[in-house]
Inverse folding.
């Protein structure tokens, strides 16, 4: 495996597709996964369509990446979903569905990818968390799941550091995507840098953390929020 | 605290997972609607040379759902959102700072941090307070299971605190957490 290989979940979404594009531009071979994602038939890009929350999907995804490209050097846990409600109105199903996709699917996939990340010698796990880890009104399910990603990242960083693997999280603030575009102008006024984030802001950080040269940076949570996390 | 531990006021006490021996004696008033203590012990049981990540995921899923259900049912008992409640969650300090040998416990502990912050935001308009105390809640071989009077004192104080004391994380670690990044 001479080319570095990245697996990116949530690859059809606004942030995920930007990460895929950035890693392709960086020279990676990429397996992008999503519930529904087209296969563009490009040489260094493969796709896997299916429900990441299914317990068996982790092994399938890892097998797909290894059979297509010969290994895995970078895992980007980007798949996510929101089901907002205040706690008294949040159904157990809404809590469970968000935790299963945002957190436990990432745990399973990370565990399944670990043997290959170790073999690579400079494996990277980058998980997309959220500013919600600081607390997020109406999103107790989402905040819980993203907080859990921080715990996984810290433990991985400590356990896998001797094997050359780094683990980090990125916590985006407001990012303008097709799903959030209607809120962008109003939200931008409340952000210190006076603009909404764009998916490329996150993708650039993933590119940095995924690089073999970033081997001294591990166990960290990088806030990409235009300074919003400094405000009351 | 191996014997029944008395808090100043009647408290609903719920234990999730297996706390260390010294933390099993809190009295539980099942009918209490104003004060809740949630003790998160060893919830995933993933200590070992190589975690079974699939089991960690499954157990994490179950434990977080259990914690969320306890909190939801307490703040919305009988369908009404109650006011002026005091909720304290007690979780493991070593796990929250990252434990290479027990990733599942770290996942749960860090998830609880974000959950407590969120509930503090959601409930503050009702005058309710939600706080997190981080201490030794998980038995670790070789570590003493000595009673921790500071822990009892802190929990007790937070269960009777003013409305301004909410969304806090208190590390009972004799400063061993200093120099490490908190989640």
């Amino acid at each position: 495996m001479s080319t570095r290989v990245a697996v990116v979940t949530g690859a059809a979404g606004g942030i995920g597709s930007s990460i895929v594009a950035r890693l392709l531009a960086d020279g990676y071979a990429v397996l992008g996964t999503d519930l529904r994602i087209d296969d563009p038939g490009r040489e260094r890009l493969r796709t896997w369509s299916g429900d990441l929350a299914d317990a068996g999907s982790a092994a399938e995804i890892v097998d797909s990446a290894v059979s297509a490209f010969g290994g895995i050097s970078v895992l980007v846990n980007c798949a996510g979903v929101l089901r907002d409600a205040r706690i008294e109105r949040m159904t157990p199903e809404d809590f469970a569905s968000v935790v299963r996709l945002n957190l436990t699917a990432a745990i399973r996939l990370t565990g399944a990818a670990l043997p290959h990340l170790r073999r690579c010698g400079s494996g990277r796990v980058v998980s997309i968390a959220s500013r919600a880890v600081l607390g997020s009104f109406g999103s107790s399910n989402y905040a819980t799941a993203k907080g859990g990603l921080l715990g996984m990242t810290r433990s991985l960083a400590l356990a896998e550091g001797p094997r050359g693997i780094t683990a980090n999280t990125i916590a985006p603030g407001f990012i303008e995507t097709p799903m959030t575009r209607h809120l962008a102008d109003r939200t931008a006024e409340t952000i210190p840098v006076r603009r909404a984030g764009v998916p490329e802001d996150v993708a650039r950080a993933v590119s940095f953390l995924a690089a073999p040269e970033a081997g001294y940076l591990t166990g960290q949570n990088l806030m990409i929020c235009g300074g919003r996390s400094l405000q009351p | 605290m191996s014997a029944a531990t008395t808090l100043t006021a009647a408290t609903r006490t719920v234990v999730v997972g297996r706390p260390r021996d010294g933390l099993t004696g809190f009295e539980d008033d099942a009918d209490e609607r104003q004060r809740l203590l949630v003790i998160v012990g060893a919830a995933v049981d993933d200590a070992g040379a190589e975690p079974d990540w699939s089991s960690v995921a499954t157990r994490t899923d179950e434990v977080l759902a259990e914690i969320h259900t306890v909190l939801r049912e307490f703040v919305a008992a009988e369908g009404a959102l109650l006011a002026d409640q005091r909720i304290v969650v007690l979780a493991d300090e070593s796990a929250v700072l990252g434990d290479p040998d027990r990733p599942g416990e770290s996942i749960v502990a860090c998830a609880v941090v974000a959950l407590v912050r969120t509930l503090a935001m959601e409930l503050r308009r009702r005058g309710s307070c939600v706080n997190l105390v981080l201490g030794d809640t998980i038995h670790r071989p070789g570590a003493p299971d000595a009673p921790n009077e500071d822990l009892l004192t802190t929990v007790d104080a937070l269960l009777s605190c003013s409305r301004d004391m909410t969304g806090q994380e208190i590390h009972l670690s004799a400063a061993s957490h200093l120099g490490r990044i908190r989640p």
